[in-house]
Specification:
By secondary structure, the protein is α+β, with helices and mostly antiparallel strands. It contains 13 helices and 29 strands. The strands form ten sheets. Strands 3-4-5-6-7-9-8 form a seven-stranded mixed β-sheet. It has a six-stranded mixed β-sheet with strand order 18-22-23-21-20-19. It catalyses: L-threonyl-[protein] + ATP = O-phospho-L-threonyl-[protein] + ADP + H(+); L-seryl-[protein] + ATP = O-phospho-L-seryl-[protein] + ADP + H(+).
């Protein structure tokens, strides 16, 4: 009973110390470039790849920690890590195998070589074996007590091992200890910034899994070679082993390959996958259906493009027609002949003003009057303007309209709203003025009469400014202008409450050799001059009468 119980305890104790790591079988020794030039590559039966190097104090290794002492007193010679004097049985791409006796030496100096795939960062290993229930007679139990670390691929446990007196020696000789090795003590990120990074082209850096720092290099997928030696890893020509189907054509690519089926075959071309299959000789229903579908779609797209192209051309032709009938040619001639005085006047396109007013949105309306609607517009250069869209235009008055635009473009008075240009591409021409931000005098009279700024002094100043602007239009402009619709809604106030005469939709030019002209009566009842109303004879006194109503 006691013997069986002791065996069970030993078996449970033994298992945790067997390394569970499965090491990468891709040996560095498979690389085409093994060592640095003029360096020995083999010690006895072991090939020693760089970053390890045979010789002490030579440049054959990456650092003294990787110097290999090839002891020729043995036959065949045996390699040892010179810094810790442990025998090397095998070198892999991130581990090396050593005799189990080396654990006694290694546990005192673990700088670059650490136990593999057990608790991270383990630097020391010490096993204590005792009996259950604190048996005093340990000596009767210890004869079959033995714990060790080793490569699990090299050891298979059997019950007979516990009673075999040669078990320990065979373990030391046949079950190697697995150690991880790494370059330096920095991780990949730190090493890249240090200036002595060891991984060359077409390779990847992998941090050490021990938790004690250091890194190693491996060739990227599809590459082979020694990642520590120039020129680094080189591309594997996968096409040498032809991974493609027998009816496929292999093309090597950096780090991989590409398969394409021969003519008359379809598929991905890769062996053991879809491969290549012969094209069905029967009528290709699916292809035919797809062809018809794509053809029909192409016809729809072509018709749609043609429709919008024709529509766009018609719009352009209509805009050109409006431009011609609204006096565009005449205005261009006037601008050319008066280039000095009209250099700031611009002919806007319909598209520009549509964008500026957000397609004449309701929330952009500044006001409505008898002659049209005024919109707030924002041009592409972020200049804010007022755009007047008139209701109707008498074709017989086109020449006079153009003349008015030309004359008003030359008006330069601080109390007259400046005209910036016009658009002739619409059925009714549109005028573009400077934007005046503080609304109409009418609004302030009837809504802000009690405001502190609207004192009698301010009212007198506004009246004086408006009177000065009318006097300028009547007698100082290049050709006298009669406004014909002077009223408080047509007097605007800017951000400093400066008066500006606006809305010249009903205005008329008066030749310098005349004092009056005969016209159809236009204006606003209540402001309209009675004499002009009865006779139809328009003079500058008509504006004076209307201004008197504004004063009242």
């Amino acid at each position: 009973m006691s013997s069986n119980f002791s065996f069970l305890y030993l078996f449970l104790l033994f298992l945790p110390f067997i390394s569970l790591a499965k090491q990468d079988t891709n040996l560095i020794t498979q690389a085409k470039t093994i060592t640095k030039p003029n360096c020995q590559s083999k010690c006895g039966n072991l090939t020693v790849p760089y970053p390890f190097g045979i010789g002490i104090g030579t440049s054959c290794s990456i650092s003294p920690w990787f110097d290999v002492n090839c002891n020729t007193s043995f036959n065949p010679p045996k390699p040892f890590i010179s810094t810790i004097n442990i025998e090397i049985l095998e070198i892999k791409d991130n581990t090396l195998l050593t005799k189990n006796t080396s654990i006694r030496k290694y546990s005192r100096d673990p700088e670059r070589f650490r136990f593999s795939a057990i608790p991270r960062g383990l630097q020391r290993f010490n096993a204590t074996i005792s009996s259950l229930n604190a048996h005093v007679r340990v000596s009767s139990f210890s004869s079959c007590g033995y714990a060790f670390l080793g490569d699990p691929e090299r050891f298979r446990f059997s019950a007979g091992d516990l009673s075999d007196p040669g078990f320990q020696n065979r373990t030391v000789d046949n079950v190697p200890l697995v150690l991880d090795w790494a370059i330096g003590t920095r991780n990949c990120s730190e090493a890249r910034n240090s200036g002595d990074f060891a991984c060359l082209q077409s390779s990847v850096c992998v941090d050490s899994e021990t938790g004690l720092g250091g890194y190693r290099c491996s060739c990227s997928e599809g590459y082979q070679g020694n990642p520590y030696l120039s020129p680094g890893c080189t591309d594997i020509n996968e096409c040498e082993n032809n991974p493609c189907d027998e009816n496929g054509i292999c093309t090597n690519t950096p780090g991989g390959f590409r398969c394409a089926c021969k003519k008359g075959y379809v598929g991905n071309g890769i062996k053991d996958e879809r491969g290549c299959t012969a094209v069905n000789s029967q009528f290709p229903v699916i292809k035919f259906s797809l062809g018809i579908s794509f053809g029909f779609l192409a016809v729809i797209i072509a018709v749609t493009v043609m429709y919008f192209s024709i529509k766009k051309r018609k719009i352009m032709q209509l805009r050109e027609k409006f431009f011609q009938q609204n006096g565009g040619v005449l205005l261009k001639q006037q601008i050319s002949s008066n280039e000095t005085n009209m250099k700031s006047t611009k002919i806007f396109t319909a598209v520009e003003l549509e964008k500026a007013t957000n397609n004449y949105a309701e929330d952009r309306i500044l006001g409505r009057g008898g002659y049209g609607t005024v919109y707030k517009g924002i041009l592409h250069d972020q200049q804010v303007v007022a755009i007047k869209k008139s209701r109707v235009m008498d074709q017989s008055q086109i020449e006079q309209f153009i003349n008015e635009v030309v004359i008003l473009a030359q008006v330069n008075h601080r109390n007259v709203v400046k005209i910036l240009g016009c658009c002739l591409e619409t059925e009714v021409p549109m005028l573009v003025y400077e934007y005046v931000s503080n609304g109409t005098l009418y609004h302030h009279i009837h809504n802000n009469g009690g405001m502190p700024w609207f004192s009698w002094d301010s009212r007198l100043r506004i009246a004086t400014e408006a009177a000065g602007a009318l006097a300028y239009l009547h007698s100082a402009a290049a050709m006298p202008v009669i406004h014909r619709d002077v009223k408080s809604p047509n007097i605007l106030l800017d951000e400093y409450y400066t008066a500006k005469i606006s809305d010249f939709g009903a205005s008329r030019l008066v030749p310098v050799d005349q004092t009056q002209i005969s016209t159809l009566v236009q204006g606003t009842l209540g402001y309209l001059d009675p004499e002009y109303f009865h006779t139809g004879q328009l003079t500058d006194k008509s504006d004076v009468y209307s201004f008197g109503v504004v004063l009242a």
